[in-house]
Amino acid sequence: MKGSSFVFLYVVCALAQSAYGATVGYDHRALVIDGRRRVLISGSIHYPRSTPDMWPGLVQKSKDGGLDVIETYIFWNLHEPVRKQYDFEGRKDLVKFVKTVADAGLLVHLRIGPYVCAEWNYGGFPLWLHFIPGIEFRTDNEPFKTEMQRFTAKIVDMMKQEKLFASQGGPIILAQIENEYGNIESAYGSAGKSYINWAASMATALDTGVPWVMCQQADAPDPIINTCNGFYCDQFTPNSDKKPKMWTENWSGWFLSFGGAVPHRPVEDLAFSVARFFQRGGTFQNYYMYHGGTNFGHTTGGPFIATSYDYDAPLDEYGMVRQPKWGHLRDLHKSIKLCEAALVATDPTYTSLGPNLEAHVYKTGSGTCAAFLANVGTQSDATVTFNGNTYHLPAWSVSILPDCKNVVFNTAKINSQANHMEMRRLRSESERQDPKQIVGSSETFQSDWSSVTEPVGISKSNAFKKSGLAEQINTTADASDYLWYSLSFEINGDEPFLLNGTQTVLHVESLGHVLHAFINGKLSGSGMGNRDNAKVVLEKTIMLVQGKNTIDLLSATVGLQNYGAFYEKTGAGVTGPVKLKGNNGSLDLSSNQWTYQIGLKGEELGLYEDSSGSSSQWVSQSTLPKNQPLIWYKTNFEAPDGNDPIALDFTGMGKGEAWVNGQSIGRYWPTYISPQNGCADSCNYKGSYSSSKCQKGCGMPSQKLYHVPRSWIQPSGNTLVLFEEMGGDPTQISFATRETESLCAHVSESHPPPVAAWGSDLWMARKLGPVIRLECPSPNQLISEIKFASFGTPQGTCGSYGHGRCNSTSALAVVQQACVGSKNCSIGVSVETFGDPCVGVVKSLAVEAACT
Asked: What is the pLDDT of residues 640-681, one digit of tens each?
């Protein structure tokens, strides 16, 4: 650390505590823990997007994947739904989550915010905050700062009481205040700058004993560390040469929107971005997300963010390992850790090896050396000479040489297995009528459904009248997604806005996010916005009657705004005008006296809880009402067999919300179809990634499968309740289980040896050469079948491999002998193992296996 400027942040602890506490600081190269610079690899897991029974498995798989740190936001609106009334139970048990991470031997980065963005409802702020007199969010505003400081101090005090900061012997080594404020700071003028200075001072005054960070905050005041968020952060430079280069959000994929295609980020590009970051001086990197999880209940923001928050993360929404992403990154992490001694000791030196070809070398006076060779071009592979040796660099790739001589990893060459995952659909109502259609063996839903019809318009005693059109969020305080606007008026038959007889055109404008218009109790038309434009314009020819007529408008939100300057001022609901239009004139109804109802009658009755007080509301009918709006449905079901993760397939339903045993699994909307274009059969990982690149599922429902945590159901006697807003057929709903159909691997002779072999015996690793490794995902499974094996020039992808023109006839037998009956197996990819079916051709081994 010679010549470094070193910063220590610490608290003075009692002698008994200081024996177990750690000092955490930083200098220009890295975070420093107990006097030692550290290379740290982190991953985001948000505790409320999974369940407590999932946490130990998620954390252990993260550790097995090579992570050192788990990063999580703190969700203010989750913990303080009512001012000064706190909730830290169940999925909200922050202390339990942090201790779970600590029990696995990992560290924690606590991103307190308390603004989080995170595609979370209202950016994490509680709605009651909106109603404090004189408040303005995220600026130099005393009412806001008072509340922000109170909640931040609450979280810090809670962590201190449990001795969870590293200075107390706990796992928390970092804390974050605010979040990506630099992206919007200019909109607030000078008040933005003074606010960020205040936030920094407020946070450091809490004496956590660990450094604080601000992401995307180029003017973060000392001693706050400013960090980078994005798909690539290799070009990022901190705002002081006394601060380390840190990456708090490397987006492993992207979020899913209702009405959007499914995002996918190739692991070759993700690994490239990570290697480039460490190549160019970084020492702390975090995946956002490592496990994305599920937006249960009404937690999703946006608007229009889907219930799934899978994020194409290394651990999928259900907590299962996503291969090859998890395995390829695990090998990358091992490779980087082999370079740690050199990385933390010095700054890199840069050498150009040609156009788009780079070498960054970390070399110390004692001879420790590590190198990164990069081809940042997108078109052509290259051969380079470095340290007197020749190296092949695929386009858009980085090779890692922990001894400055031998390549242990290249970001474009995957040496990890792939898992072919499927959601296996179980029995549906219609399939029980025809056993030949049945897939799987578990009983799911009973044949008896009951229903309750939600009244159209005003049905609750607390309805109120108001002249003009009410803004929805100010009216509902987000207590419900729904707000009814109701208006009655008389028709004589000679009004100028009539077209023919009693026909007219109803014109309604709304900020959203979904609007349904009922005329005299019957659905007349619906409209919806989208992720880019929540505004709804509904124009529909309607039929009125002589005498009294009623217009009932049901406005629905799909998560509140979560990002942008002054986002709390973004409204929702019917803004108007509301007009009746005809050939000879129009009538503007916007300023009339409307009657309002917050929420649904079924919500007031607690139908989703299936409590004894609401049981009498349910009606069992021989003919179930189907494909009708505003229907509540209920049925009982048995848990699917086994322990595989489960989901509900909402094929046949429109839009609504679902509850299992009183727990909301979130909003469903399988009828919102993604655009027909924008996807491709194959994805070229080379070149800069964006959220619109490599999309999947065009022309399909954005989401039709909805995670049901196993811990929410019992073996029998479970209840499913639905509120169907638009119209659907619940008898088409089925369960699906998340299962591994196949294990696959495809490795070339040109791949580096497996990184696990490096570090102890480089000669043995070089002799070993590239290896295929297969391992069953569950502890009690064994490899039962080799579905495909080819050494030569195999083609295709996992699940659809085929033989090329060159193929060893012994490949299948060799792989069967090595793997069948074992939990895992390793096979060398070489002519020594399989013979040489085509001399002079670079060959590869492709294998597909099954586990039972």
From this structure: 988 899 999 999 999 999 999 999 999 999 999 999 999 988
For residues 67 and 174, give the distance between their C-alpha atoms in angstroms, rounded to a whole number.
15
- Burial (CB count within 10 angstroms: exposed 0-12, middle 13-18, buried 19+), residue 12: exposed
Per-residue CA distances from 7 to 115, 178, 259, 778 (Å):
27, 22, 48, 45
pTM over 0.90, yes/no: yes
Percent of the chain with pLDDT over 90: 85
C-alpha dihedral (826, 829, 831, 835), degrees to nearest 10: 60
- Whole-angstrom distance, CA of residue 170 vs CA of residue 151: 21
Pair of tokens at residue 700: 């399909």
* CB-CB contact of 843 with 806 (8 Å): yes
CA atoms within 13 A on the CB side of 351: 12
Separation of alpha carbons 702 and 695, rounded Å: 11
Q: What are the angstrom distances between the C-alpha of 502 and each of 538, 577, 579, 580?
A: 19, 21, 15, 11
Q: Catalytic site residue 657?
A: no
Q: Is 84 exposed, middle or buried (0-12, 13-18, 19+ CB in 10 A)?
A: exposed
Q: Is the peptide bond before 394 cis (omega within 30 degrees of 0)?
A: no
Could you tell me where the DSSP H helices lie in 65-135? Answer: 76-79, 94-103
Q: Quick check: helix, strand or coil at residue 609?
A: helix
Listed in sequence order, the residues at least 6 apart from 200 whose beta carbon sits closer than 8 Å to its beta carbon are 177, 212, 214, 220, 221, 224
Question: Buried b vs exposed e over 803-842: b needs ≥16 C-beta within 10 Å?
Answer: bbebbbeebbebbeebbeeeeebebbbbeebbeebeeeee
Give mean pLDDT, residues 296-311.
Answer: 97
| Tokens describing residue 673 | 């179809």
Whether 7-339 and 770-851 share one fold: the answer is no
SS3 state at 634: strand
Q: Can you give the C-alpha Rg of the chain in angstroms?
A: 30
Residue type, 328: H
Amino acid in position 321: V
CATH number attached to the domain at 464-596:
2.60.120.260
Can you tell me the distance from the alpha carbon of 603 to that of 624, in angstroms, rounded to the nearest whole number? 21
Q: How far is CA 321 from CA 123, 291, 470, 849, in A?
A: 29, 9, 47, 17
Name the nearest CA neighbour of 793 among 747, 844, 827. 844
Domain 770-851 belongs in CATH node 2.60.120.740: yes
> Is residue 148 within 8 Å of 99, Cβ to Cβ?
no
Of 249, 340, 454, 725, which one is the catalytic site residue? 249
- For the chain, how far is it from start to end, CA to CA, in angstroms? 53
Domain boundaries, the chain: 7-339, 343-413, 420-454+604-739, 464-596, 770-851
Encode 416-446: b = buried (16+ Cβ within 10 Å), e = exposed.
Answer: bbbbbbebebbbbbebbeeeeeeebebbbbe
Tokens, residue 522: 């019957």
The CATH class of the 420-454+604-739 domain is mainly beta
Q: How far apart are CA 201 and CA 24, in angstroms?
A: 19
Q: Which helix (H) or strand (E) covers residue 312, if one does?
A: none
Helix ranges (DSSP H) in 221-376: 267-279, 325-338, 340-345
CB atoms within 10 A of CB 223: 17
Active site residue 340: no
Cα 295 from Cα 81, distance rounded (Å): 17
Tokens of 38: 């550290």
Q: Where are the alpha helices (DSSP H) in 438-516?
A: 472-476
Residue 592, classified by CB atoms within 10 Å of its CB into exposed (0-12), middle (13-18) or buried (19+), is middle
- Specify whether the CB–CB gap between 315 and 421 falls below 8 A: no
Identified catalytic residue from 147, 180, 431, 657: 180
Selected from 3.40.1400.10, 3.30.310.50, 3.20.20.80, 1.10.3720.10, the CATH number assigned to the domain covering 7-339 reads 3.20.20.80
pLDDT tens for 25-60 read 999 999 999 999 999 999 999 999 999 999 999 999
Enter the tokens of residue 114.
Answer: 């308390």
